[in-house]
Structures
1.
Amino acid sequence: MNFTPAFSKTRISLLLLVLITGIAGCNKEKTADTQAAAESKPAGLAYVTSQDDGVSVIDLASMNVVKQFDLKDKGPRGLAITDDGKKLVVATRENESLSVIDTATGAIQEIKVGKNPEFVRILGNFAYVSSEPSAKGGPPPKPGAKEEDDDDGEKIPATISVVDLTTGTKVREITGGPETEGIEFSADGSKLVITNEADNTVTVHDIKSGELLKTIPTHEYGDRPRGIKVSPDGSTYLSTLEYGNKFMVLDKDFNFVRTVETGQTPYGITYDSSGKHIFVATNKEKALQVFDAKTYEKIKDIPTGNRCWHFSFTPDDKQILLACGKSDAVFVIDADKLEVTKQIEVKNMPWGVVTYPKAMGSISSK
């Protein structure tokens, strides 16, 4: 009797079983390796400017300061990070420059941009920085108080300096209003949207030519527009009105839609990355306020510190870092529970914060 066929079938079945088991085990190992890699992926870094010091670097895994870049006596304020994370660009008031920091080595290149640089944004290989030649030292006047005007003369228009980060040179200027503050890009990157706090306007410019395309007066809604942010889908723009205790809503064509009441002296503003919520830092209210982005109903006030202006989500959107200048601290907020979980000591008037990888915030966007 010949048993060869039966034996062959059994042998083939066993071989197939071993092969399938091996593949399954291999896939399981690959899945475990992928999960381990994801878990070991660095949480990233946050960079915080201090007006009377330099830049503090926070490790987002430990939420501790791990490094500092010394810009003391240069008056660092606005900051931005390049897409590859290799360059940190800081507006330094006292030397009228952009200080471009190599994040790996700490080497600093200074690029002259003009008097009183303040706010910085990056698009591609170009940095855009606001300079305020007519701005005066000291705190702004109190709401309702008449601002001093030198013989009622014209206020000097501010400029947006455009700096080529590849060559390290200032290549052109865009003329803004007096005391240009916040800078935002349109959703398609073709326009520059800026807030001009001294003449209470938001202006829209062609980003290539600098041509003024539209002016939106804010005085009837509130004075001193400061923060500016586009929604993730590009359908809406928001601007805080510091002396109106409101933020203003514009549609995609920069038409006025409405205002929304906030706490006292709002400044930094952003959507979350989903576009479902709006976050506003209210300086004298000492709160980070959260609003529904569809109904504009206030969801919560998160108690914070003193003179909290700018903030950023972490790259995973799970936490928010809020720079509070007169508390000498960065407040860490759970983005789901909307509660403060920690304060990180950052001395000498922390001003602004951005992260790498990039995240949504009052200064930067993903």
2.
Amino acid sequence: MADEDAPLHGPERDLMRLAARDAPDEFLMALQAMAKQRLHEQVGLLVNGMIVIGELGDPEVLASLLQVRRGAQIERAERPDGLTDAEWDELAQDWISEPVRMVEDFQAREAALDEALEPYLSGDDSPPRSREIPGEMERQLEGFRTSSHITLTNATITAAGVNATTSVPVMRIAIRQVAGWWLAPLNEDGTTSISLWGGEPRIFGDAD
């Protein structure tokens, strides 16, 4: 076990600096966690010089869309030679449902980790202390806390100097590509809206 009081040497210091610089914005991660609880927020994101506006959602939305798309593809596909109708139907259904199963597997693993962490909780809703939980469990916990992508629904994409926008029903964005973000301002009537370059604002529904 390494001495926690010993000074860092070269490689350890380099690794520490890389990890600190690559850490995602904790506030954005907090909004992503709210999306898991169906507490969706409308946000603006600056991504590779473009502005993307939409509602923070959860991966289930994209999984459902992929399931529908795969179902449509299977309807146009021909049964491969050597497979019976029953074998082809089983293979097709397994492929169609794969995106939803991926989400369900992730949620099951997350729930199992939450249960395994219960003995390390202090009882006051504070997170477990890293010095007490096993190393592998802490690695899993960090993986669940830090998302690589965020999901937006009803998104629009625009860029400076471009009068038109592109609408996207569901969009996945790599968090590393987000250079800036902001919440849609709340209006007096309970709606939220975002205006760009003096144009017509995009109005969202009731805040609740």
